[in-house]
Amino acid sequence: MERRKFIVQTATPFLVFCAACSKSGNSTNSSSVDFTIDITNTITTPGSSITRDGVIVVRVNAQNTNSSFIAFQVECTHAANPIVWNQSAQQFNCNLHGSVFSITGAVINGPANRPLKAFNLSLTGNNLRVTG
Ligand code: FES
């Protein structure tokens, strides 16, 4: 077998494997979303949340304004475990390895070292549109 052909055939599977590995540590959610939630009977109380299309949408207070809600990628940026909202502490917790994120998505405690991706919110009547 020709040397160059041998190298290509033996290195290609390794490179594919390495590309897959690089996605497992400090994961990202780069896909775009665009959906609308009717909040008439959903996430009606402060601290309640709903997860859809990889996004966790949380009601942080009882008012009905854009700032009454926050939306972030649901996957922890460390290793993609779903985060949960802690209303009393006003932060997201990842219960797999203990990362903590602020209400703005910033890392408070690792091992995650990157912030959560935030999504845009637009409230029209009872329709909360999530994009990003
Ligand atoms: S997946 Fe490891 S801290 Fe979240």
From TrEMBL:
Query: Which residues constitute the signal peptide according to the record?
Result: none
Top-level taxon of the source organism: Bacteria
PROSITE patterns named among the record's database cross-references: RIESKE (PS51296)
Keyword set for this entry? 2Fe-2S, Iron, Iron-sulfur, Metal-binding
Concerning InterPro entries, the annotation shows: Rieske_2Fe-2S, Rieske_2Fe-2S_sf
Give the GO molecular function terms.
Answer: 2 iron, 2 sulfur cluster binding; metal ion binding
List, for all copies, the residue spans of the domain called Rieske.
60-130
| Key word Metal-binding present | yes
The name this protein goes by in its record: Rieske domain-containing protein
Organism in which the protein naturally occurs: Sediminibacterium sp. KACHI17
Biological classification of the source? Bacteria, Pseudomonadati, Bacteroidota, Chitinophagia, Chitinophagales
